[in-house]
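retry 2 of 3: previous attempt timed out while embedding magnesium ion. Reduced batch size to 1 and resubmitted. Inputs unchanged:
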Amino acid sequence: MDKTDVRYIKGVGPGNAFLLEKIGIRTVEDMFAYLPFRMEDRRNYISARELTAVLPSDESFFVAGTVKKITGGKSPRRRARIVEITLEDKAGTGNIRLLAFQNRVKYILAVIEIGQEIAVYGKVELLAEGLTMSNFDFEVLKAGQKSLSFFRRVPVYRLTKGISIKRFRRWMWNALEKYSQSVEEFIPADIRKRLALPPRPAAFRNAHFPETPRALSEAYRRIKFEEFFIFECAVAYNRAQIKKTRKELTYKLKKNLLTPWKDSLPFDFTSGQKTAINDIFRDMLSPFPMNRLIQGDVGSGKTVVAASSAVLAKENGYQTAILAPTLPLAEQHFKTLSSLFSAGRVKTLLLTGGMKKEDRRLALEEISSGKADVVIGTHALFQEHVKFKKLSLVIIDEQQRFGVHQKAALSAKGSSPDILVLTATPIPRALSLALFGDLDRSEIRVLPPGRKKVETIQGSSQEAYDLISKQIDKGFQAFVVYPCIEEAQDEHSAKAAYKYLSDEVFPDYRVTLLHGRMTPAAKSAAMEKFSDGKTDILVSTTVIEVGVDIPRATFMLIENAQMYGLSTLHQLRGRIGRGGEKSCCFVTVAGADSLALERISCFLKSSDGFELAEKDLELRGAGQYFGAAQHGMMDISFNYNKALEEKFPDLSDIAVLNTAREEAFPLLEKDPALRNNRALKTRLMARFSEGFNLAKVS
Ligand code: ADP
Ligand code: MG
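retry 2 succeeded.
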């Protein structure tokens, strides 16, 4: 790895290094990884005559020519400073006027002189005065000096204030000239050969200053593969580690708690639950740590499955930690489990960030003394001062919020504890193996008996309001969900909706607001009001997305459903119909494009989470699928700037991801400690240690 500080790149220095750090560039390698978000084709210039023929156009053009005349600027009339440059094009087919204003005038006058050859790039207008460019990028061409901004494909970067793109390009060029040969290759030669991947130095050079379009796409192919490959190596490495560790806390099946507990349940397990419990118990009783993912649609009964494993842990005198992605969910788990365990001797405890000091101290004491058997919490459970006496089982609810790294951090709390991950997000088959190759999987595909299907319909808000009133009059409750793109907007739109609904539409009902920017305490208060039946309508954003269980809620209105992915819609819909009552999910749609319309039509037709997930992936493509629906599911590619993500054709990513897996797993099997692949190991460990930094996690 080339960890050389950027300040040593020619032209950078300490002052600019400080600016570069603002965009995350510290080392030469960071610099190389800072890929352009766009390439501008400035290979060939266009003549004045050709320009006249193609205008009007919204595109930018490259024009080269000789400066014939410079007017204005020096003696500004009043305060409007303006300079006009007349450029005769290289082919001699006509003139182009360049206009510069205000702050730019001084600089232009200082740099441009009559008789110079200059290259310009920008939008062109055909005015009465002739061809005119009033916003342009330019360079004075000097014989013998290679231009970085013209006569080539030119990289465009997202930069920060204080760094001009021309200088940045120069620094990049200098860095590549001096250091690209020394970047370390870490993909084994046989893999590179098999996949015909360009060498790393060439890939970086061509990613910034491509010699040919093909070289550019090959460079990207290599860089993308590299990222996926490291990810898959981490997954494979994880797997190999688990398979060779023996756990310290081992189990016996005593059944002295399990049997009475099971008998106390008001129902029998479904076949899917039985299989899952068998899988889990087999793992727990084995000498190697469990690392299992339970996939089951909303309402499939994952909680009791998880509870069974906690009872087995208790039976052996061990503790269980349950991690929920949000506070309301942690609270709900606490409630559900406390009542599930009320018959047995399992002591549950809720640990949250917002606890009073004294309560917290007591809770921590119960955890460290081993009095608490099952500890439920959010990320707060990760914190260093939380010490368990005998933690043997970690249950993570909703996988998509926890990546490989967090799991590793948690494992560090116990001595190689068993890990059980629950998710209601069905991962499309095409991705499942690649993303969760380090986990064993059990699926629960049947729902408990007596579950009524949620009817899903589309209509107007007004129609929905009428239906909501009817439901509330019958003693039921309703969700109204508003879309959000960013948290700020999210807060805004939910607040506005809340005001409108409570003042104008439902003045006679009790309406409560819940959004992501509320304090944790306010959030859980709102949630509690709703689950205790003290409010009729919960107006919210997607914070209710996962897991919340309100049996009296029979109606959900999702406004602007076109803004969500199918997986999110499906998750939302799973919040209702949990009490055996007939329930309705109502969507309104506005301004949807054809893809969105197709999503909605699938959503109306199907209630199978797996089917919808596959469709979501197909319609949205992997990039968006990860970005929006599966937020944070995968800690991949974050080394490269976001713009890069936009560049790659989405679906082919899955193919690359799978190729990476197919290469990584056999490699790690052959060389589990990566003894013969030092460079790869170094890189892998560097990525892992970044992941261990918990500050980055939440
Ligand atoms: P999930 O977490 O998978 O979405 P839950 O565990 O919350 O689902 O279960 C949903 C509801 O179904 C709960 O009220 C639970 O008590 C109930 N339930 C779970 N298993 C069964 C079963 N085998 N038979 C009947 N009801 C069940
Ligand atoms: Mg659940």
